[in-house]
Write a structure and sequence with these properties.
Alpha-Beta Plaits, elongated, six-stranded mixed β-sheet, alpha/beta
């Protein structure tokens, strides 16, 4: 059992010093479920390679049935892979027998979609449960649980039962319980999908603070790209059991390559062409039409007056039809859909100048 933290209430909780490696490494992993009568075998994961560095926050996003839940169950040892290795905190999970696996799970915290609290236990007692199972004494339990209640903002709710707590408060209790055994790795299974937007933002801020203060390695699965944008350092996109795209959050958002990733990204960056404009777009150019360009501005370019400079250079009017600018992983990312005079030579020159400045440009078509 990892030693609990004898901390005064309100003090930052520090992990014990350790030389053991921390992080997650998934190597050539496949997971196949056997066939049932009348159906073929199910390949949930196929040749997955993923590295979650120590102290990082990595999001795995995918649609329902992509294999996300199977992946997280392999990491915490609830399932064994059909092929490959899963290494957590320097230990190959796939090589452990059941007693050793139970011991190893104390270094892996788990947050569930629904908090899974015991209705007959108070917030304090729910957080204390894994410590009680591990045989920790009452004084040590109190020295661990009270700082955790304070960390998640529930010091005044220690004696409340789950029925007396809001959805966000119950999830905070679940997070504190996941931290009770001083884990080095924290796994999150759709932890915010049942919460309202405001509560989701609060939980994501809490997870970021926990990552920073406790130096935890965090891996979460989700189907919400907004959660990835707010929380992750890196992101892997899972589709039909394969990782189809992986990289830093900003790179994946700014330059998505796979069609699945593009659909996810467009839902939160404004890169999706609005329906009202799609209804007006034409593929063929008429003499009085204007060309419609989709322009993505990245990094420092998002704050530059590139369109103004181009309008002056070419002596043209640029009409902004749609736009959005936001922060992704601490960097600005802007999307604009504009129309310009449709002469083919001019469209090419404007596009070339925007690309030379580091912007991505797509010619969508023409509008009257």
């Amino acid at each position: 059992m990892n030693a609990p933290w004898p901390q005064p209430i309100g003090a930052p909780v520090e992990l014990p010093a350790s030389t053991a490696p921390s992080g997650i490494s998934i190597e050539n992993v496949a997971k196949t479920y056997p066939a049932r009568p009348g159906s073929a075998e199910v390949v949930a994961l196929d040749d997955i390679n993923l590295n979650v560095p120590e102290g990082s926050i990595v999001g795995v996003i995918g649609r329902s049935g992509a294999g996300k839940s199977s992946l997280i169950r392999l990491i915490n040892g609830l399932e064994r892979p059909s092929r490959g290795r899963v290494i957590v905190n320097g230990t190959e999970i796939t090589s452990l027998d059941e007693p050793a696996l139970r011991r190893q799970r104390r270094s892996i915290g788990m947050i569930f979609q629904h908090s899974n609290l015991l209705s007959s236990r108070t917030a304090f007692d729910n957080i204390a449960l894994p410590l009680e199972i591990a045989g920790v004494g009452k004084r040590e339990i109190a020295n661990t649980v009270l700082p955790l209640l304070d960390m998640v903002g529930l010091a005044d709710k220690r004696d409340r039962y789950p029925a007396e707590l809001s959805g966000g408060q119950k999830q905070r209790v679940g997070i504190a319980r996941a931290l009770a055994t001083s884990p080095k790795v924290l796994l999150s299974d759709e932890a915010t999908s049942a919460l309202d937007p405001e509560t989701t933002d609060q939980i994501l801020e809490l997870l970021k603070r926990i990552n920073a203060e406790l130096r935890l390695t965090v891996l979460f699965i989700t189907h919400e790209m907004a959660v990835v944008k707010a929380l992750a350092d890196r992101v892997a996109v899972l589709e039909r059991g394969h990782i189809v795209e992986e990289g830093t959050t900003y790179t994946v958002f700014a330059s998505p390559r796979h069609e699945v990733t593009k659909r996810f990204v467009s839902s939160v960056t404004g890169s999706q062409t609005p329906d009202w404009l799609l209804a007006r777009l034409k593929a063929e150019r008429a003499p009085q039409d204007e060309a419609v360009l989709h322009v993505s501005f990245r990094g420092s370019d998002a704050g530059q007056p590139l369109l103004s400079q181009i309008a002056r250079s070419f002596g043209i009017d640029i009409n902004i039809l749609y736009g959005q600018v936001e922060m992704i992983a601490g960097h600005p990312f802007g999307t604009l859909i504009v129309s310009i005079p449709s002469a083919p030579e001019l469209v090419g020159q404007v596009s070339d100048q925007l690309k030379a400045a580091g912007s991505a440009v797509e010619h969508l078509g023409y509008v009257a």
